[in-house]
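Q: Two folds, back to back.
A: First:
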Amino acid sequence: MSKTLLISRAASLLVALAYASLASWHRGNVAVVPVVFLLCLCPLALIWFPKAWMNYSGGWGSYTGGLGRGNNYATTPPFMVSFMGWFLLFLLGGLYLIDAYWKLLSN
């Protein structure tokens, strides 16, 4: 296992734990922690196992386009799969911040 992958896994897990703890603190309920982890599961899978998604021919791991003239299949580089996982993970955090901001304004 490469050092970069190990650092990426640890950092993504820390971000997911931070999301869970902030959600629990903000909502005042520990019951939201499993929900937050379930929401983080797909981005974490993309970050932790980018090579497993690289050759997945049944979905978005290897499809590059088509536009109705046939399909063009090529493997997606693992760093792009990992980037997509990080994007989704930070998107979840952004959506949660927007939700918290709107709840703060409504009070």
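A: Second:
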Amino acid sequence: MDHETDEQFNIEFSPEVDLLTNRQSQVVQLMLDGIMDKRTIGNFLGISERTVKNYMEQIKERIEEYYEDQGVEKNLTNRTESLIELLRIRALELRPK
């Protein structure tokens, strides 16, 4: 798996799902590490809280689009639901065919 390191904070990020951009994957990785506060995530990544909020919304939209492409309607209402769905998608992708 490809990894990218943010030297300023010495954090290693790994993309969770190919449907996300690298920066969105970084936000997801921090959330999976238990950092759910937008301001704290922004501080780790050197971006504003508003930018983090935008990334979170884009992540939610991308997951919903993924399911729509699969013929399933998903209406995610919060960050936790988004993370659960990302993990579910990842598990499905890693499952032997």
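Q: And?
A: The domain at 4-94 is CATH 1.10.10.10 (Arc Repressor Mutant, subunit A).
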